[in-house]
Amino acid sequence: MPSKRTLLWDYTLTRDFQNTPALRDTVGTLSDNGPLTTVINWNAWRPSELPEFFRFQPMVRTPAQLEGGEWDLINGSINAEIQKPGDDEVIVFTFNEPERIPLSPGDAAGLWRARLFPLRNQYGSRLKLVSPSCASDPAGNQWLEDFMGMLGDDEKPDYVGAHFYTSQDQSAEDGIAAAKDHLAFLCNKFGKALIVSEIASTSRDGGNVERFSHEIVDWMDAQGWIHAYALFAAMREIADGFVSPAAQLMDNEGRWTSLGRWWAGSS
């Protein structure tokens, strides 16, 4: 059975790749028979430093990616994936936490109808669209409900995009339960399989992070309605104060942490 794991690869790794020896070594450990063979970088362009076997999944992160050079890059990335041998799905992500951009559900539905939905006719049945991925809070849930309600049945996405982060003070057990509840809610609400493109514990306790990560990954692997998922995230620096240092997949030199080695199948 193909791995559901997806590598979240920050753009700074592409920027720093040539000048970061440990990062180059880390990329050298990635194998086409390992658990990571698909990649997202929140961008329209493929990270050229990753091995050719990686299937790239471009993202229309904001409305800016629907115009000019960014739109050309989206289409170029789709074309490159379509032309690869085989019949793998070519997955395109849309609007990342749009309720925080902010982008209204109505404006997003209009852009979906005008720019994104037509990609299906342009590229054929291998092209799969992921709904906007909202934060796992009431505002995110309401935004997605409003957006989906504005689309006709034939216009709806192939997959529902999902994010989930625990509360910083949650135990691993409570975080796991909350993640399961949120993801099941989305599947039941919209009747579509999910792609969980960001998930992590924000606990500062390493033991909590490890337990959450291992148990939620095992659980997601067992759910037929979860198509793919990605732990947040491969980057050398901590993204912001929300993200837990204990959940870093890389150290500041670009080497896998203990959690990262497990995630990448290196340990």
From TrEMBL:
SUPFAM superfamilies: (Trans)glycosidases
GO biological process: fungal-type cell wall polysaccharide metabolic process
Segments forming domain Asl1-like glycosyl hydrolase catalytic: 31-263
Entry GO terms, CC: fungal-type cell wall
Domain of life of the source: Eukaryota
Signal peptide: none
Protein name: Asl1-like glycosyl hydrolase catalytic domain-containing protein
Lineage of source species: Eukaryota, Fungi, Dikarya, Ascomycota, Pezizomycotina
